[in-house]
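Continuing from yesterday's entry. The apo prediction looked reasonable, so today I'm repeating it with magnesium ion included to see how the binding region is handled. Same sequence as before; SMILES copied from the compound registry.
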Amino acid sequence: MTGKKLLLKALKDRGVKYIFGYTGGAIMPVFDEMEKLENFTFVMSRHEQGAAFMAQGVSRASLSTGHPQIGVCMSTSGPGAMNLVTGIADAHMDSIPMLAITGQVATGVIATDAFQESDVVGVMMPICKQTYMPLYADDIEKTIHEGFYVATTGRGGPVVIDIPKDVQNAQVSHDYQFDPVAFRPHLPGYFYSPTPEREPLQRAIELINRSERPVMFCGHGVINSNAGQLLQKFAEKVNIPVAFTLHGLSAMPADHPLSLGMMGMHGTVEANRAILEADLLISFGMRFDDRVTGKLNEYAQNADVIHVEIDPSEIDKNVRTSVAINADVYRTLHVLLDDPMVTFKPRRRWLETIDVFRNVMAESLAAEIAHGVGTGNKLLMKTIIHQLSEVTQGRDLIVSDVGQHQMMAARFYNYQTNNSWYASGGAGTMGCSLPMAVGVKLARPDERVWSISGDGGFQMNAQELGTIMEHNIDVKIIILNNGYLGMVRQWQTFFFDGCYAGTPMQSPDFKLLAQAYGIPHRKVENLEDVTPALQEAIDHQGPMVLEFICDPTEVVLPMVPSGGGFEDMIVKHPQKIDKDLAGEGDAA
Amino acid sequence: MKRRAILAFTLDNPGVLNKVSMLIRKKMYNVDTLTVCRSRIPGVSRMTITLREDDQTRVTQIIKQLEKFTEVISAKELDTDHSYWREVAIVKLEVDVAHLQDFTERYNFEILEQKGEDVHILQIVGSTRRIDAFLDEVGQEHIIEIARTGVTALEK
Ligand SMILES: Cc1ncc(C[n+]2csc(CCOP(=O)(O)OP(=O)(O)O)c2C)c(N)n1
Ligand SMILES: [Mg+2]
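Holo prediction written out below.
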């Protein structure tokens, strides 16, 4: 038996079906072995970053299926491994379990600055959950299984395993001998406590029963522990409205009467106003990052905070809790649902207050969506997303890139399917969508998958059209082309006096680009063509690119300025505010 | 700022010190000393970190971040009332013996070597403050070189 065989057998044992990656000198032995086995589908990305996001897509999308899979990406040493960095750091920020396997130069030349040697462990250490460098083939089995264990337990995260080339080739005297039942990784310093303790739960229930203006928070932990249905049941049981973090979206139907939509910087008025007025926040699986809280010392001043979170280091990190429950969200909700002490309250006044908040922007947004076009009759992103939501009845899987289009996709798609929304949140990595959509589609082949990017982000990983072409991966690709790095442009409009430095962008002819990969393309400029184009993409078997020409002056509102409190929420376009003051109405 | 000591037991793996020092840099902690030694248990190291921090929540955060490392078995704060904090200093100084004699009563030091007329190498053990006081009293102008271990600490 050889190290490389042990590696692949261990991956197989863990249910790995797809390996995303790119070959090179230091990983060639593993690729060679992989070619001889028929166990894996190898998917070659066109850049290692793409492979990392594809692996993320598999992990993210499959976790709510009967067969969760852990995404695996693989690269050679040096530049190959360095190209994985962004995708791994991104997975780390978003708590996505995945495995990155990198080839390393042979042990005999490590530390000599050998050809394509880089200190992968040193680089990866601060941006992943754990790193390994097995120095003997005998260690490989244990390392892979321990790696899976660490990646998938507690708060998930990426694990990097850097394997020197000679270790891949080395002979071991025994066969593959892993015993999953007997396996107990020796990790005396690794703890996680999934089961909630009785005492804080009791105090939490008391607070919930006593509260008059509670808000529940649904974070990524709800999705990751697959607890969406339980959360919805619990919200209904106690009659408490739910606000979502970016990554909590799709845990519950977006149009559920208790849903407040997204909170935070680009959250809804109702979510942010409700938080401001709340007397109790019950937060499930989230970390109160600055995009969610705004200015910390003004955040939820009058509210008690119950924080249910698997990672103890997140508790009391940004927001002081009244009750901390360091446990798995699913298990906690399970116990809460069964507890006879938890009571339903009508909370009529509170829900009425919230309805007032809902109405602050509802009408103007609805009017904008219906109008559909902005400056120069160019399309509005929110309208396109809205129409996508209508034609797909909110049931499809949405993989977004980073920018204005992302916030529009978060806000205006009516998510009906559990775990149907994917994006880079913590890191906000442009270019994630196209490759991540590949992984999502492979993990959930029976569902329709849309990749939504801006003209900027699309070009950051556009090379992955090659992978999509080669494997004929049926993702519907939407480019919301506004000719700008729109999200940054929006900040420039609001905070830099409209000086558009480094944000206007020339794009290639996306039609020719798509055609070069043999993928059909439609360019949509008129409102009446939006839905028919979406329908055409749905009817088309296989991938298709839809490019929508969008209004660069459209902004995502409301917006809580970075470092501001919820009181500072901007609900109107500044140009429009000026015109209002001048009595010129809303014609922008 | 308040001085704190954190005691951590860690696996004796190559990456641990790296992780701890990266954490210190990333979170911008004001670390004064960091000492590592073997513990009674084979394969387990004992790490003492002293730092300056008034904010208790920040200290709690450091401990939680340390505990988050797979290789850290336990981490906790030691307070001055319930633990001993000690360090060793080796000092090379130029001073005549008579002057040193003044301190033998009050300070626990040992002369390791006398080089020539009045160059001495001595070793002193005690709390950081005690060593500082000794050096001040002897007179900083006499000191040629100092090596200090940094603090190690033990719970009472
Ligand atoms: C890799 C990377 N570089 C830079 C940024 C900063 N950034 C955030 S959004 C954005 C603009 C995105 O433009 P585009 O993809 O066209 O989307 P739009 O906002 O126009 O919808 C930029 C540059 C980022 N998030 N990621
Ligand atoms: Mg754009």
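Comparison notes:
- Chain A has three domains: 3-169, 198-353, 372-557.
- Chain A touches chain B at residues 121-122, 125-126, 129-131, 150, 187-191, 311-313, 315-317, 320 (CB under 8 Å).
Will overlay with the apo model tomorrow.
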